[in-house]
Structures are given as C-alpha cells and as structure tokens.
Write a structure and sequence with these properties.
The complex is a heterodimer.
Chain A: H1 11-18, H2 30-39, H3 41-58, H4 67-79, H5 84-90, H6 93-114, H7 125-146, H8 158-173, H9 190-215, H10 223-244, H11 250-275
Helix pairs in contact in A: 1-3, 2-3, 6-9, 6-10, 7-8, 7-10, 8-10, 8-11, 9-10, 9-11, 10-11
Chain B: H1 6-14, H2 18-39, H3 43-59, H4 70-89, H5 112-127, H6 130-141, H7 146-153, H8 157-179
Helix pairs in contact in B: 1-2, 2-3, 3-4, 4-7, 5-8, 6-7, 6-8, 7-8
Classes of the chains: A mainly alpha, B mainly alpha.
C-alpha cells in the first residue's frame, strides 16, 4: 500500500488495507487508509463490514462459569503437588535438561571407564570418535526436545528424531570395523550375546526414560514428547554399548544395539494407542 | 491486587501469594474456557484443560521471564495442551456446538437478533481450518498482537497475518451468503 490508487476498486487489496486496523499491515499506513476510505465508497462499505465483524466476534457469548469452584479445584490440585516428582517438575527447564544430561553422562562414562570394550587397542580411533560424537550430538538434541516446555510452540523436529533412531542402524550397517581381536567375533551363542547387549542398552534407556518421565511436567504421556524421550534413551543405551561391547559383527550391532531406541518408540506407540 | 499487572501478580504468586493466583485465575479462566469450549464438544474436557493450564503454569513458573508479558506465555501453554489433547484423542478440533442448530445451554441468554448474528459468526468461525481459527481467536478474543500470536502458534508473523487475512475473507464471504 504505497499510494491509495494502488488498491482503489480492488476488493482483495481493500481487504488487506482494512486489515491494517487489526495490525495486519504496518500501523503507519492507517492515516493513508483513512484518507482513502473518506473518498472511496466500496472500501468504506467494506470497512463497515469489518467493523461489524469485529463487534460480532467480540460479542460472542461467554460461558457461564462458577469461577470460585474452578479456582478451588485448581487450588486443591496445587496443594497436592508435593513430593520428589513435583519438585523436579518445578525446576527450570535448563535445570531439568542438565539433570537428564547428567544421568546420561553418568551411564555412558561409567560404562566406558568401568567396563571398557576389550578391543579398544585395535579399534580404529577415527571411527570410534566420529560414531561417539554423532551419537552424542543426536542425544543432546533429543534430550533438549524431550524436555521442551509447553510454553515453547516450535514444532517437534522429526528430522532430529529420525536421525537419532537411524544413526545406530546406519552404524550397524557399515562393514565390520575390524576382525583383529578374538572378542570381536561371535563364535557361538549369537542370540544370547545379542539379547544381553539389548538388555544392557535397554537398561540405560529405561533409566533415562524414567528420569525424563519424572522431569516432564505433563500429567500424562504425550506421544511426541514420549517418542523423543524414548529416542534419547535409545541413543544413551547405544552410546554405552558402543563403549562396552567389542563385537563388530553387523548383524549383532543391528539386532542388539540399534534396535534399543526403535523398540522403545514402538512400545510407547503401542501402549498409548491401547490406552485410547 | 485488582490493579496490579499480570507480571506483578505472577511474581507475587510464585513468591507464595495465594490471592495473586486467585486474581490471575479470575482474569484468564473465562477467556481460556471460552476458547477451549469452542473447540471441544465436551465442556468437562474443556474445563479440565483450563485447569491443566493453570496447573502447568504453576509447574513452569520458574521458566517464566518476568520481563515478558504473561498473556502470550499462558496462551501458548493452553494452546499446546489443546493440541496435545487432540493428538491424544486422535482427532482434529471440532466445530462449535452451534453449527448443528442447537443452542448451547451454558451461554448467557441473549435476544434473538443478537443470537442470530452470533450464530452466523460462529458458523463462519467453524468453517475455518484449525490454524486460521486459532489465529483469529488469539487475536480477537485473547487480545494478542500478531507477533504474540506468532509466538503462541509457533509460526512466523507473516504466516500468521496470511492465516488471519484468509480467515477474515472466509468469514466475510459466508456472512454475505447468509445475508442474501
């Protein structure tokens, strides 16, 4: 709307100009708009329509409410907010994220130092570093999104979630890092060893998921937030397994390591769909 | 207490002043309930979402920046809870009750002429898609500016303006058809 003549006679443009009254356009254009309305009848009619619409919208009925009763119900609920979970929920979001990251770091570091993989001396250092870094980044991002406060309206980044779930699968699909250590090979008990790894990873994921559930402020499990938590837990479990398990066979990595996050996500989806 | 700003009240509430909470509840409960009931057929669910909003605001009090306005913050929580409600139920927002011709017994009775006009506007609102209706509700009913609406719905200011503009056009064209 640079000059009045640009919208005179065009309903589409006139509507745009009229919308300036509700700040759709730059308010500095209002004097210009008023000058135009004084001389242009079609636009003046539209202006009257919009004013009516505005009044009608504001005139919509308000519900009859017993505010005192509602307030009392909320006050009762607030008074019941006590205990460990309530305290954790009331922490600020940076503090809640820090708590979840601390637990994740404890799981990973304790595994890495307490029960390091036996083949570290022959495992390619660049490959180990790049895999650990990629999982770490994906873990950080999913933890941040998992504890997103409800006062943040940004959409859930499905790309982060997909990356978090797919990274372990991609790593598992790579050719074996090496076959130079006896512990890297599975000679027997494939299923038992794979199941043990899955259980180990799932334990770490469950610990992260449990704490996240305590830190989450919702009164129920929301699917999007829940999926993010499951993915974060899966990544932590994977990272711990990466630092602990010396087996390099792709099938073992796929079934015993990469499936941890996916199984948690699938389990959550199934549980929530049954609850409906 | 009644003249205190939202921010002052919220700060007082966080510091443990129960009267501040009651005043905040008085200011926002009606508005939030009206918005929730427009999208939810079950008034009980709508009222529970309003209560959840305040409960959540209580839990998130340490996240609130007292240098920022309270209204958009509270509205963002309320609208996110509403979105989660529909996700949980596996449904999309519903049309307001008036669409099917019945009268909502919970509203204050008005004279027929006003009621007709109101029904027309509600019909127009119901014809909008959820994202357009959200923007118009927040702008007209909640009194948020477009930059604030953009924060609440998680979109850019220009996208919000486009949604509002298209929504107004739809309502207007419906009102015109009704008037014929």
């Amino acid at each position: 709307m640079t000059t009045p003549s640009t919208y005179a006679g065009s309903e589409e443009d006139a509507l745009s100009c009229l919308a300036a009254r509700s700040h759709i356009l730059d308010p500095s254009t209002l004097p210009e708009l008023d000058a135009h309305l004084a001389t242009c009848e079609p636009c003046a009619v539209l202006a009257a329509d919009h004013a009516l619409l505005g009044h009608a919208l504001n005139d919509l009925p308000q519900p009859k409410l017993d505010l005192q009763k509602m307030a009392a119900t909320v006050q009762d609920q607030l008074q019941q907010e006590s205990g460990v979970r309530s305290t954790l929920q009331r922490w600020s979001t940076p503090k809640r994220i820090a708590a979840l990251l601390t637990l994740s770091a404890v799981i990973v570091v304790a595994t890495g130092f307490g029960a390091p993989r036996a083949d570290l001396s022959v495992y390619p250092a660049e490959r180990m570093a790049s895999m650990a870094l990629a999982l770490l980044m994906a873990g950080l991002l999913t933890v941040f999104r998992a504890l997103r406060p409800l006062s943040d309206s940004r959409a859930t980044p499905w790309l982060i979630l997909a990356t978090g779930l797919l990274l372990p699968v991609i790593f598992a699909g790579l050719p074996a890092a090496h076959l130079d250590h006896p512990d890297a090979l599975i000679h027997d008990n494939f299923l038992a060893k794979t199941a043990t790894c899955f259980a180990f990873g799932a334990l770490g994921a469950a610990a992260v998921g449990k704490l996240a559930h305590f830190l989450d402020r919702r009164s129920f499990i929301d699917l999007q937030a829940g999926i993010m938590v499951a993915a974060a837990g899966g990544i932590v479990g994977n990272l711990a397994l990466q630092l602990h398990c010396p087996i390099t066979a792709p099938l073992h990595l796929l079934l015993g390591h990469a499936t941890v996050g996916s199984v948690f996500v699938l389990g959550l989806i199934l549980a929530l769909s049954r609850r409906k | 207490m009644k003249n205190a700003t939202d921010r002052v009240l919220f700060k007082a509430y966080v510091d443990g002043d129960a009267a501040a909470f009651e005043e905040l509840f008085r200011r926002y409960a009606s508005l939030l309930t009206a918005i929730m009931r427009r999208d939810l057929r079950r008034h009980q669910d709508a009222d529970e979402l309003v209560q959840d909003t305040f409960l959540h605001a209580h839990r998130a009090a340490n996240d609130f920046d007292t240098n920022r306005p309270l209204r958009p913050w509270l509205m963002t929580i309320a609208f996110n809870l509403k979105r989660e409600y529909f996700r949980r139920k596996g449904r999309r927002p519903e049309a307001p009750l008036q669409l099917d011709g019945r009268r909502d017994p919970a509203v204050i009775p008005r004279i027929d002429e006003q009621r007709d006009a109101i029904n027309q506007v509600q019909k127009g609102l119901a014809a909008l898609n959820a994202s357009q209706r959200e923007v118009i509700e927040l702008h007209w009913f909640a009194g948020l500016t477009f930059p604030e609406v953009a924060i609440v719905v998680g979109a850019s200011v220009s996208a919000v303006k486009v949604r509002a503009h298209r929504g107004y056009q739809t309502i207007r064209s419906l009102l015109r058809e009704e008037g014929r």
